[in-house]
Task: inverse folding
């Protein structure tokens, strides 16, 4: 198999999840709350056989002590992909950092940022290297 094909096949799941988001966006368009897109994504992904959790509790620790601060991840798919959903005009660095922080706190390898914007669906894909924790943007070739 050619290197490019192998790379694209490795990250094909990103394309499939984005396809589900496109289906949701085609039906609902822009203007709903994130929670509506989240519920539709969960339903459709489960219909495709994925394990999907919504509003996953993410506690914050200082060493071994759980602090009285926590976060909620929009979707976690198949126990290894964090999906952060937005329904805003445009994505900026603070939205990316939110996803990256979730990836670092959980050590999960994959993250997606999906925006149901007035200009159409937008999605970014990320991979976290387990050896050094560096998060890189995934671009299919």
Result:
């Amino acid at each position: 198999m050619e290197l490019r094909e192998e790379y694209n096949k490795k990250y094909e799941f990103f394309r499939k999840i984005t396809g589900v988001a496109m289906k949701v966006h085609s039906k609902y368009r822009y203007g709903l709350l994130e929670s509506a897109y989240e519920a539709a994504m969960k339903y459709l992904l489960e219909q495709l056989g994925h394990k999907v959790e919504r509003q996953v509790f993410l506690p914050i620790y200082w060493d071994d002590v759980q602090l009285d601060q926590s976060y909620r991840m929009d979707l976690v798919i198949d126990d290894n992909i964090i999906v952060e959903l937005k329904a805003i005009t445009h994505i900026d660095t603070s939205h990316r950092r939110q996803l990256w922080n979730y990836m670092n706190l959980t050590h999960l390898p994959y993250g997606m940022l999906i925006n149901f914007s007035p200009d159409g669906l937008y999605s970014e894909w990320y991979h976290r290297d387990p050896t050094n924790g560096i998060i890189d943007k995934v671009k299919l070739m």
In short: The first strand starts at residue 52 and ends at 62. The chain has four helices and six strands. The chain has a mean pLDDT of 95.
